[in-house]
Write a structure and sequence with these properties.
203 residues, alpha+beta, NADH Oxidase, 6-stranded antiparallel beta sheet, binds flavin mononucleotide
Length: 203
């Protein structure tokens, strides 16, 4: 098996391994994720901060095993774009991250997607701590999920996450297998962190 064990980020100073070693694989192993691990991921999300402790995040959790998948997994999987279905089919867990974008009075809650992002970030770090990987996908049909699961109108699915342990890249289509070992890249710090004036590097 040609599993890639780690794809550590290149950083100017050493980061905590939970962050440096997080990445988004496409090669997943069908080995089930334990109930305790799934609960921990959701607890990590639940304990994220939000303005006024509003907690606008909601999750739909689907499980799959060697014997097949539950109805939630099937519904989430069917909503994925084909370019995600080709690799996400091996992931034992799919989680839709959903946000409440309206107050009770119908006014927009602009900050809510930011808060959902914080919750999902916590979920991904907890996944790393448990030897799991989470790959977020924006490529899916949120309307299809809304209809399939009866999601109320004030909620919107933002990402679906594939979660599990690393699998064998050889099982992937060639384009996806190549990405499993491609260099991980980011903009330099000097392009994103400024001090004094816009564009002047902070570090
Ligand atoms: C909001 C969001 C949407 C994404 N959508 C997809 C997607 O539809 N399909 C996919 O393969 N990866 C998707 N990704 C994964 C990104 O491509 C990946 O995080 C990015 O290339 C950085 O790679 P890394 O996570 O391995 O560091 C998404 C990530 C985020 C945060």
């Amino acid at each position: 098996m040609t599993t890639v064990a780690t794809r550590t980020a290149g950083t100017a100073v050493e980061l905590h391994p939970l962050l440096a070693e997080r990445w988004s694989p496409r090669a997943f192993d069908r080995e089930p994720v334990s109930d305790a691990d799934v609960t921990a991921l959701l607890e990590a999300a639940r304990w994220a901060p939000s303005a006024n402790n509003y907690q606008p995040w909601r999750f739909l959790v689907g499980r799959a095993g060697v014997d097949g998948s539950d109805a939630t997994y099937k519904g989430l999987f069917d909503a994925l774009a084909e370019f995600n279905q080709v690799w996400a089919s091996a992931a034992p867990v799919l989680i839709a991250a959903i946000v409440e974008v309206e107050h009770e009075d119908g006014s927009a809650r602009e900050i809510a997607p930011y808060e959902l992002g914080l919750a999902v970030a916590q979920l991904t770090v907890e996944a790393s701590a448990r030897g799991l990987h989470a790959h977020q996908m924006g490529g899916f049909d949120a309307g299809q999920i809304a209809v399939e699961f009866g999601v109320p109108a004030q909620y919107r699915a933002v990402v679906v996450l594939a979660v599990g342990r690393l699998g064998d890249p050889a099982a992937l289509p060639a384009w996806a297998a190549e990405r499993e070992s491609a260099p991980r890249e980011r903009k330099p710090l000097s392009d994103i962190a400024f001090s004094g004036t816009w564009g002047a590097a902070a570090a």
